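User: I'm new to structure prediction. If I give you an amino acid sequence, what do you actually give back? Let's try with this one:
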Amino acid sequence: MTKPRFAILVLAAVLALLYFGTIHAYAEVKIVGTISTDGFPSTKYTSLAKISMPDAVGKALEKVNGKVSEAALENEDGFLVYSIEIVTPGNKRSEVLVDAGDGRILAVEDGK
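Assistant: Good question. You get back a string of structure tokens that encode the predicted 3D arrangement of the chain. For your 112 residues, that looks like this:
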């Protein structure tokens, strides 16, 4: 096998491992919060939350330094969470999930 062909095969294998490894790792994260969203339409989420959006943003910024680019109240794995997207000083994006019931940090996904 020639060197360029071998290099292409190695690169394809590495990219496949990165792609499928990332999906696998993300799929393994199971969010467990304090407020179930079962049986509630998304229009009721605000009334279910026990902490405010500013409080959730504050908790997220304690965990990840940067500026908030997005914040939303969402259903994640059947639980009510605040999803806070933060752009770090290095221009990377991180998503912080904050429990809408007690303000705990449930997950941090470091992005690119």
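You can read the tokens as a compact description of the fold. Here is one thing that stands out. The beta strands are 67-76, 79-87, 93-99, 105-110.
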